[in-house]
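User: Study the chain.
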Amino acid sequence: MRWFWPEQLNSFIELNTTRQFVAERALLVAVDFAGQRRQLTRTAALARHAALANAEDDPLALGEASSTVVSTLDLEASLQEFRELVTSAGAEIAGEVIQRRPKPDPATLIGSGKVVELAGIAASSRTDVILFDHDLTPTQLRNLDDALPYRVVDRTQLILDIFARHARTREGQLQVELAQLEYMLPRLTGRGASMSQLGGGIGTRGPGETQLETDRRRIQRRLQHLKQEIEGVRRIRAQQRQRRESVPVPAVALVGYTNAGKSTLFNAMTHAGVLESARMFATLDPKLKAIVLPSRRKVLLSDTVGFIRNLPHTLVTSFRATLEEVQKAEVLVHVRDCSSPVQDEHKEEVEKVLGELGVLSKPRIEVLNKIDLLPLDERPSLEASGAVAVSARLGCGMDNLLALIDAALVADPIVEQRFEIPQSQGSVLAALGAGALIREQEFVGNSVVMTVAGPASLLGRYRQYRVDARD
């Protein structure tokens, strides 16, 4: 079915296509609200302590450092992440505007005076689009659109655009479109001709309905259609999962902040050759690959979409079919970028999303990735944290990680048993040799006596050959 959208909706959809932001100049706007400053994490606290130590000889500088370093550190980390988002969207950064205020302005977020100043800065920097590192309410977005002769895009809309650029499969495209329309629906506005009634002229006069109501009805119809298609995807995934579960193969999911190196780690463990990119949200569609652990048992490893600070709730809802791989996994491998100065904040954000998915109680393995980016004298301290340190790019630490995954699995546990198998049973000997570890082996007459450690499901198939079962 082909859809004919009103002019306003066509404009929105054009904004979220892969052509958007290409070679465009973007003006970045970030606002620091003093009343919303977060508690310092360990990394930020150390930086704050260093700033205060450097200023201790100057009482004025000491007071200024004490009052502003918290906000500066938090704002700079947020702004750096926003720059990476803008780069991932394909835009060129024309300039940055930072404002500090006690609380958001309900009409424009930044205040009327700052809006006038923003228009001047945008004009002098030849800006094409103004990007806010905040979510704008429908009222704020409408007021800014009225006051500024430039397109205004907030953080959620920017993330949705990046998702639209990277969606490759039909499933991913459906989920992104669903999230886009759910974001847009409350932001539809009607002005002038768009509020006029459809009927006009002799024989067509009447109350009718406004163009705005028509737009909303069309979007609601499309939303319902998308939800039905995605529900079909869920059913297919559930059928595939049931077929996989008929054979006891545990599932392990890689989770973590976006750009933490999950896809690189997935390739290092599976040699699957999936896309590795420094761009944020390069992976949208889950990848599944079987790997063999040191105990010789197989698991399914999945690479999932990355999380981010203030991840739009519409994305969590729309990508429910994809994130079910996380919910069904027996063990979660939380991949963290140990070279990031805000890795503790990233960990909190990931755990927040995992809490929304209801999987915080699952066994988790902490993986500190990118140790090759750290100085040599800082690497030993990582091992004391209880996490496993790896470099997915160089392939370092993979053996330790696989051993930890092996130990964390509780389904189909590893057991050790002793067998006496006739040499004529070559298929049994081959199956045990391929799927389990042979601890001891000796030939007694026409039989092979061996001690084997392997998955309980595998060894259970040959219980008639167990030595202890005969006693």
Observations:
- Residues 7-165 form a domain with the Rossmann fold fold (CATH 3.40.50.11060).
